[in-house]
User: Fold Sex-regulated protein janus-A from Araneus ventricosus.
Amino acid sequence: MLGTNRILTTAYQPIANGIVERFHRHLKSSIKAHESTRWSKILPIVLLGIRTAVKEDIKASCAELEYGTTLQLPSDMIETSVIPPFNNIFVDRLRNTMREMNPVATSAHRKTKFYVNPSLKTCSHVFVRIDSVKPPLCQPYTGPHKMEEKLNSVESVKIDDDGAFKYILVKVYDPDNEDSVFKFIVRGDASAAYHGDIYEVTTPDIEKLGLECECVGGGRIKHDPAAKTIHVYGYSQGYGRADHLQTCRLLKEKYPDYAKIDFSNDGY
Assistant:
């Protein structure tokens, strides 16, 4: 509703939140410039100065970006003996300038490249670092964890390009570690008379990779590529109703440009 976007950053990695950490450095330097140990008392005036300072890269202050106008500083409230004459032209020009002023994104002053070890493409197991707060004398890594290369080679969605047809939701897993290494796939075929026919065709392709699979439900799909819509509904008499919500998530990843992908538990 407010147009905000929440972004999570890595723990104990200040570089992941560089803009905020840079502001903290600027704020601490401003507080240290005052000869006072009660930083809580001088904090309001320090923040006022920071918010009214004009940034050179965007040619505006934080207050102007937030409120569309400048803040009134304490020095502006002091009466002077010389009062400039009222100028309508200046006021009109100022109003027009403030109306045309648009916020400009803060520029990034550095580009960080993250290093990825090339051996990750070929290794069979990996250790995962624990970035949360750890008790003393505990291991900083978990593992070894088996890479999911074989699972990633299985296409998540294979359905017909048009029409209404039966589909099944299949769980593909590593037989050595079924609980933690698995994924769901969707298979749909208009030529299949029964849901079991689709499963019989899918199983050999999975077993060739050294994996195993289990059909966790079925239903029907109505695919309209012209309107860019997909509707998931119904159930399978042999396998039961599939988790249509999970199916829709996989379909949205496969067809990100579609206008509508929804589901209903009604119908057969």
Notes: Residues 14-67 form one domain. The mean pLDDT is 80.
